[in-house]
Amino acid sequence: MTARDVASRRMGATAAAARNRLLPEGRVAGPMPWVIAIMMFLTVLAAAAGLGLGAGVRSMGADLAGRATVQVVTADAQARDRMAARAVRALRAIGEVRSVKLVDPRTLADQLRPWLGEEAASVDLPVPALIDVELRPGSSPAQIDARVAALRRAMAAIDGAIRVEPHAAFLQPLAGLLSALGWLAAALVALMAVATAAVVVLAARAALDGHRGTIDVLHLMGATDVQIARLFQRRIALDALLGGVAGFCAALLVILALGSRLEATGSDLVRAIGLPWAAWGLLLLLPVGGVLLAVAAARLTILRALARSL
Amino acid sequence: MPASSARGDPAGFTVPTGCAMASPKGKSQEERAGPHAMSTIVQFENVGLRYGLDSETLSDVSFSLRGGGFYFLTGASGAGKTSLLKLLYLAQRPSRGVIRLFNEDVVTLPRKRLPGFRRRIGVVFQDFRLVPHLSTYDNIALPLRVAGMEEAEIEAPVAEMLNWVGLADRAEARPATLSGGEQQRVAIARAVIGRPEILVADEPTGNVDADMARRLMSLFEALNRLGTTIVVATHDLPLIAQVDGAQMMRLDKGRLADPTGSLRYPPRGPGAA
After folding, report:
1. Are the CB atoms for A244 and A37 separated by under 8 Å?
2. Which residue, of A18, A128, A242, B191, has the greatest Cβ tally within 10 A?
3. Min distance B73 CA to chain A CA atoms (Å)
4. Which of A7, A10, A214 comes nearest B131 by C-beta?
């Protein structure tokens, strides 16, 4: 083969492809894609948990903020029914109230039956009358508080024994727990990002040491630090992309499996923990972010290391 | 490369005409040597080099090299030849003194400007330093790729260089499969393909037989006729004697043997010092 033949055979090869050959083919550091895959798997799960819990808290918050239960507690069943009817009328007259629903006593009895037995339906058992109240959506906690206060005033005008229980009061601890778990998930995502960057830094340093001879030659031929860093950036980006996609796909399967289990519970509370479309979009950005993070960490590491040489 | 376009060489090498190594026939040596011909291209003033806390490897080295000249650097093993060359091809900064390359002080030069200077210097390393995973073709093309040339611009010069060093049929071979002499020629082709203003060669004949050494030296002379300033470190005095008009510096324990720093014509005849 003549030199001209070789040159002709290389026709069409791009300068970029040729420059990419300056480092040996293969990965920068053998286990790096696997480590990044595991990191990405955990990151996506943590992020999904955070986003799902966040959605749950928001959904719960909307429900909590707009709902209250009015309890009419009177031993005399007839007086209780009259008082409940008055309360319903009074509630419907309040402009802040969107809907009012008197809970059927039979429904209450059905719900109490597992604990009280057949006596739950007895008229002798002073079960309070319950009225579900849905308020108009409010934009701030202060507005909600004001609406609940208006309900309380209206009910107090009928009878001082009527109690108004905003749902937020008894579901607030659960919402607080979910919110805390969401923040914990966000912290885990941040820690994973730091750990991923640290792995890339170690891999980049190892790669730099492994190719020190080639880098020295390139430097002495006039290669700039940025030119050399680009060679490593590309390799590390490919490794990060490979690991990121693998980790994301594995996490996706787990999320879908968990989602179907949540659906199967039939609980409105549990089903509130879901991933809206925007959350899926954010999750999809994680592998992209992982690659960008890896490239940036590699570039900084290589440039800082090269800056220490002549 | 057409044979008719090549300039004959007594040792069998021909100087390529069509690319980075084009020979400007009909011009004087000064004209051929370019803008730095016969002007001072390298200047060392009281240069000292110390590795760590050891005593100085080079002490009070002062000399000037003119553009287009052919210089030998000689001295016993351990005299500091390689260290001096490292300073020359900017692999090392001196511990003290001033080094001017192309009329610029490279000791205080910002690091980011060094690549531009390094691209003007070709280096043939004592141990060749070929990139092991690259083919002969890619090793020779390395300086042009580093300089950012497109593949289409690289192909012709590399093909010509492969022919020039007689390795066209080994273009795809990896360095590990090449003989010492072939590796040497690849290293030289790589050093000169970018048409450097200075070619620095560290013991370039240390790993080849006498015949190949003579051929390589003829190749350097051919380059020198094109205007490249040649600096060759060697302790092979008979080799030095082969090059007409070359000048010699001798290092002895890190100091130039002639304290005035003046350069001498090499002695004639093997064994002379």
Report:
1. yes
2. B191
3. 20
4. A214
Instruction: Note whether A222 contacts B143, CB cutoff 8 Å.
Output: yes
What is the H or E stretch that residue B96 is in?
strand B96-101
Q: How far is A213 from chain B (nearest CA, A)?
A: 8
Q: A40, A284 in Cβ contact below 8 A?
A: no
Tell me whether A26 touches chain B (CB under 8 Å): no
Do A224 and B112 lie within an 8 Å CB cutoff? yes
CB contact under 8 A, A223 and B115: yes
* Beta-strand relationship, A129-135 and B121-124: unpaired
- % of chain A beyond a pLDDT of 70: 83
Instruction: Read off the pLDDT of residues B84-140 as tens digits, 9 standing for 90 and up.
Output: 999 999 998 999 999 999 989 999 888 889 999 999 999 999 888 999 889 999 999
pTM listed for this prediction:
0.69
Q: What DSSP line would sit under A57-100, residue for residue? A: HHHHHHHHHTEEEEEE--S-HHHHHHHHHHHHHHHHT-TTEEEE
Spatial separation of the C-alpha atoms in residues A37 and A31, rounded to whole Å? 10
pLDDT digit string, tens, across residues A136-171? 776 566 777 788 888 888 888 888 878 888 887 777
Task: Please indicate whether, in this complex, the C-beta atoms of B138 and A21 are within 8 angstroms of each other.
Answer: yes
Q: Sign of torsion, CA A270 A271 A272 A277?
A: positive
Residue pair B251/B79 in contact (Cβ under 8 Å)? The answer is yes
Note the pLDDT tens digit of each residue in A78-128: 888 888 888 888 888 888 788 888 888 778 778 777 777 766 666 667 778
Nearest CA in chain B to A5: B159
